[in-house]
Amino acid sequence: MSALLTRLSLEEKVRLVVGAGLWSTTAVPHIGLRSMHVSDGPAGVRGISDSADETSASFPAPSALAATWDVDLADEVGAVFAAEARRHGVDVVLAPQVNLQRTPVGGRHFECYSEDPLLTGAIAVHVVRSSQDRGVGMCIKHFVANDSETERTSYLARVDERTLREVYLAPFEQLVREAQAWSVMGAYSGVDDGVTAAPVLEHRPLLTGVLKDEWGFDGVVISDWVATKSVIGAAEGGLDLQMPGPDGPWGDGLLDAVRSGDVSESLLDDKVLRLLRMAQRVGALDGLEASGALRDHVGDVDVREVLRRLVSRSMVVLRDDEHALPVAPEAVTRIALLGPNAVHPFQQGGGSGYVRPDRSSTPADALRSAFGEVEVDLHAGAVSRLLPPALDLAGRCTTPEGHVGAQGELLDADGAVLATADVTEWSGWLREVPGPAVALRLRTTVRLDEPGRHEVGVGTVGKHVISVGGRVLSSSDTVVGAEVILDSSVNQPPPATLVIDVTEPTTVEVDALVQAVHPVGYASFVRAELVHRTPGTSPDELLAVAVEAAAAADLAIVVVGTNEEIESEGYDRTSLALPGSQDQLVKATMAANPNTIVVVNAGAPVILPWLDEVPCVVWAWLGGQEWPEALADVLTGLTEPSGRLPWTLPAHESDVPVPDAVPVDGVVEYHEGVHVGYRSWLALGRTPAAPFGHGLGWTTWEYEAVTSALDADGGVVLDVIVRNTGTRAGREVVQVYVEPPEDSSSGTPGAERPVRWLGGFSVVHAEPGAHEPVRVRVDARAFRTWDTEQPGWVTPAGTYPIRVGRSSGDLRLAVDVDLPGSAPTRPDPHL
Question: CA angle at residue 13 from 9 to 16, to 5 degrees?
């Protein structure tokens, strides 16, 4: 690498550490370096094109993978990431997201693995290592304490040093030390650790001191997109690659800063060497062997099979009092499939985790296929979306010239028409808009045939004038740029609408002049969501039809959940309640047919006020493209839903320890310290609807015995015997929790320790009646705490109660372990 460095000019070095475009790095042909391509995301590899023709395998939300607690399955998912990346020409996937689920209202909660740092790190290590073994890099994100979306590009997370070390840095450290992650993405937000308060990309003690010097990270620190705010500060802080480019602070000013001596060339050389090292690893450097022992086997994976099995296994049986699962297909001739999410499943969260799926199917079709000769009555039964649906251009619209659809005109700054086209299908987006265009004018006449109340309008961002029926409903002179992408307001722009009471068929004209957005670092686009709400069936009428279907069916399946208006990158949730009238639907269905199974189609926790009343409830996540078939597999017994909650399910919003993450004067206080997630529930003595780690599967288990032994390195090995006491084969997640010695602050001044914390886990399969031995290792790191006075890691001496069970709230066995402890030691760089 050093020899290649000497062949680069200063100008070439600078260009290398600035993106060449939205998803690519700079090529230097004379040293054999091609461009490297990066791509989102956490739930599928999107690719590097905005073309509607490019599709991807849509994975379940990352929380679903964590819900399996299965590191072997995580290895398979890493292989799927690699296969999908290679298929799309991607060298580095911008995933996984290993921020913690600090609060259930976090907008990207579904993109994270867990509220626990150990579970997060353990799953992520296997995903990253498996992908990189096949020559595809993974970029772990977002370093660090970027755990909510409100004001996410500017807030300062105030986290004390001990909490940072033990909780929020822990998954990143595990990934660097155990998986040798090739890249890390620095967050938009900032961190105040009590000593240094700065944007993460300028936080030298964290990016350089901890990540690079202490942990020995030899990869590339990549900025989140358009997150770089300075030249010298970010360069000195530890950023290696500004994305995107070629403009932005480094594209405009880094060369001058090096020439003037404000940034040393030796510092730049270190960044370039890191880029070259990553290029060698992914195979982007001619003449140098790429990394990855399994590189030649990247295609040896059945993507659909892995995803379908993953979704099925991830589903969590919250309740099954009458052993409704699995359903015997021969006993069912008529199914009432009810709920807004049964009609339109929510399979992907909004934002960078979204991909255009390779395939789609419906729960109704999947059930018909799985159950054979069965009648499926499909009814929404409730309203769950607040925004009006898309306008039917082909069915009820005409252009000013009388053609079917709407007319679009691209305009330049003088109002001259650059291009005109009629459209009968409109996604709400026009992408790759040419530079001279500053606006798009959309015009159409909408036919309103049905009597009743109609709502017609347009949602957009930026400078605009929206008129419906000759009335200006909304206007703005504010020209917007990348900020509408960063805050995700572009994803679900609230429409300006006109309500029209129709007594006889009529028409209404829509005329929208909307900004063409040319954001720095991103592709240009126009956003205009044409919407129309027709006079529909009232919620009461929807409910009545659904209840009638439930009463006539052998089995009622109610699919409730969230949707893209609620769970998305860019904004946090304001409520944990199921949207609309879904709770009413569940209760009414139960009253009509006691043989009811409720399926929750959501990524992050929601309040289920009827949980104790419904005999069978399954948490089914955001399942990606294979979700309908996977759900049918679970219901019919093809695959056991063996998931366990990777977070805590609240019973009441008022009980949530961290109910929001709204910055106050630009600061988010991490007031709970090390008591993240279930640890806070335990410390506060509050009872959730379901504890961290909960899940029933379809069999029962007895925990018979446990023994322990100390490892030479200070870890503890537990040997547990479990027995499957049910009538079906099943999978069990044996969970081990550590509790502190009675004097929990011994040797650690001021260090209050959690009531208990996850120390290890293992998955076991057993046939009915079988006794199975399970070995679980609790690493020495699980016992240590950070001493801020020395500073360094210390293991307090004492007797540690170790508890073994099925969840953090269902502990069956216990063993005490005596540890001699250790004196505080400073972190050992590169250890």
Answer: 135
